[in-house]
Amino acid sequence: MEHKQNVPFSPTEPYRFCPADGNRLEGPRPSGGATCPLCGRSWYRNPAPAVGAAILDGDRALVTVRAREPHRGKVDVPGGFLEVGEHPVEGLKREVREELGLELEVDPMPVLLAPHTYGPEGVWALAIGFRARISQGVPKPADDVAEARWIGAEEVDGVDFAWEHDRGFVRAALTQRA
Ligand SMILES: [Zn+2]
């Protein structure tokens, strides 16, 4: 995407200084990489992959109300950012276990791929969404979830989603289910 490659680094974004040795980096190249004059490594701005689940039960899907910023009080789907080296499906199972105490059976074919910005600094994330079902447990929200709620397809339009791609994701999961 040409316009993204030409966006200069802002004071709030990585990287102005080498994460390895703290030296000031050279200005970013059009490709987005910035090279350290001391160690020679190049650092890139990449999106952070974030996984989400459309957890289905019959004709309803489970959505969550955010207890934390950004977008506290708005609705999203269970999930979160991947850890280093983690497979997206395993990361999704870990996040949902932490957030809701649920074990999931995940359809490994993603049904959502959406680049978006996250938080006041506009960090780029890549949302990856999967259909899932509960294999064990009932939803018990942890600290970062204010509430978990089952919604039907007719309720999707009225939900105050934090990110519009989640609205499309939940709608698609509810209407495309086999
Ligand atoms: Zn360096």
Number of domains: 2
Helix content: 10-25%
Low-confidence stretches: 1-9
The secondary-structure element order is HEEEEEEHEEEEH
Q: Could you give me the name of the CATH homologous superfamily of the largest domain?
A: Nucleoside Triphosphate Pyrophosphohydrolase
Number of DSSP helices? 3
Terminus-to-terminus distance = 35 Å
Can you tell me the CATH class of the largest domain?
A: Alpha Beta
Count of strand segments = 10
Q: What is the CATH architecture descriptor of the largest domain?
A: Alpha-Beta Complex
Instruction: Summarize model confidence as the mean pLDDT.
Output: 89
Strand-residue proportion: 25-35%
Structure explained in plain terms:
25% of the residues are buried. The strands form 2 sheets. Strands 3, 4, 5, 6, 7, 8, 9 and 10 form an 8-stranded mixed β-sheet that branches. Strands 1-2 form a two-stranded antiparallel sheet. By secondary structure, the protein is of the alpha+beta class. It has 2 domains: 1-45, no CATH class; 48-175, Nucleoside Triphosphate Pyrophosphohydrolase. The protein has helices at 2-5, 88-100, 164-175; strands at residues 34-35, 42-43, 48-57, 60-66, 75-76, 79-81, 103-106, 112-118, 123-136, 145-152. Residues 1-9 have low confidence and may be disordered. It is built from 3 helices and 10 strands. The structure holds zinc ion.
Short note summarizing the structure:
By secondary structure, the protein is of the alpha+beta class. It has helices at 2-5, 88-100, 164-175, and strands spanning 34-35, 42-43, 48-57, 60-66, 75-76, 79-81, 103-106, 112-118, 123-136, 145-152. The chain has 3 helices and 10 strands; from the N terminus they run H-E-E-E-E-E-E-H-E-E-E-E-H.
